[in-house]
Structure formats: structure tokens, C-alpha cells
Amino acid sequence: MRSAATIQDFAAGQMNRLLNALAFQLHRAVKSPGEKEIHDVRVSIRRFSQGLRLFAEFFPRGEARKIERRLKRMLRLTSEIRNRDIALEFLARSNRAALRRRLEKQRKVYQGQFLETAGRWSARDFSARWRNRLSLGGV
After folding, report:
1. Model confidence pLDDT, tens digit, residues 8-35
2. Which of 82, 100, 111, 121 could form a disulfide with 126 if both were Cys (CB 3.0 to 4.6 A apart)?
3. DSSP 8-state code for residue 94
4. How open is the CA angle 77-79-85, to the nearest 5 degrees?
5. Domains of the chain, CATH where assigned
6. pLDDT tens per residue across span 49-107
7. What Å distances lie between residue 127 and 23, 27, 94, CA to CA?
8. What is the C-alpha separation between 100 and 91, in angstroms, rounded?
9. 121-126-131 Cα angle (round to 5)
10. Which residues are within 8 A (CB) of 96 and not within 5 positions of it... i.e. 6 or more apart?
11. Torsional sign, CA 86, 88, 94, 96
């Protein structure tokens, strides 16, 4: 007979799924940091962050806060990239070439910072570490 799953089991399963999605999107964006890939990383960060808040009672408080701080920093960085992507799209047909060049240059700077940060996350196997720190197991 199967035992009934608890809400904690459900939370762990959902958070594992969200963490896997975040890791996938982050690795994808590192390989090709285009507009869509950066947007998808941002969506994954927001969803995982929401899960941390929704299921907060099941996680070690200090560990969840540390993870949220890291996520917030990465979200700020990807926001800077995304803001430039939107502005560049808006200015695509304009005669403001100097402004477009400046935005493209700024995007490259933020993209470099993103790649550096994402590289550190990957080198430290962030998803395995966070899974362990949140006591998610290998669901």
C-alpha cells in the first residue's frame, strides 16, 4: 500500500522541478545569452523565488535567505540586460545610432558580468548545493 504524500513531499518535488528548470535555463543562457535566453532565466529565477517564499516553512530559514539574496543579485543583473534589449528593440528603426551603440555597449558589459556570475554558480554546482541546503533530496 502506498503511503500518502505530505505537503512537504509536494513542496520538495515542486522546488526540485523549479531548481532543475533554473539550472537548465542558466546553462542555456551561458551558451547563448540572447534576448530570449535572458528572459527565460529571469522567469525561472522569479518562479524559484516564489517557491522559496510559498514553501518557506519547509526550508532552513537562513539557507533560503542566502539563496534569495543570490537570486536577487542575478535578477538585477539580468534586468539590466533585459532593459537594454527592450530599448534596443524600441530604437531599432530610429535614427539614433549613437544611442543604440551606447546601449549595445552597456548590454555587453552587463552580459559579461552575467556570464562571469553564472560561470561561478556553475563551477560551484549551485543546483546541487542549493538542493542540499534546502534538504530537497534527489526527488
Report:
1. 999 999 999 999 999 999 999 999 999 9
2. 121
3. S
4. 115
5. 7-133 (1.40.20.10)
6. 999 999 999 999 899 999 999 999 999 999 999 999 999 999 988 889 999 999 999 99
7. 6, 11, 42
8. 7
9. 165
10. none
11. positive
Rg, the chain, Cα only: 18
Q: Which of 90, 138, 81, 66 is nearest to 114 (CA)?
A: 81
pTM for the whole thing? 0.89
DSSP secondary structure letter of residue 58: G
- Number of alpha carbons in the 13 Å side-chain half-sphere of residue 139: 19
Would you state the cell numbers that stand for residue 116, as one nine-digit string?
562571469
Cβ distance 40 to 29 under 8 Å?
yes
Q: Which amino acid is at 27?
A: H
CA distance 132 to 112: 29
Here the cell at position 79 is 534586468
**Do the beta carbons of residue 81 and residue 114 sit within 8 Å?**
yes
Contact 81, 38 (CB under 8 A): yes
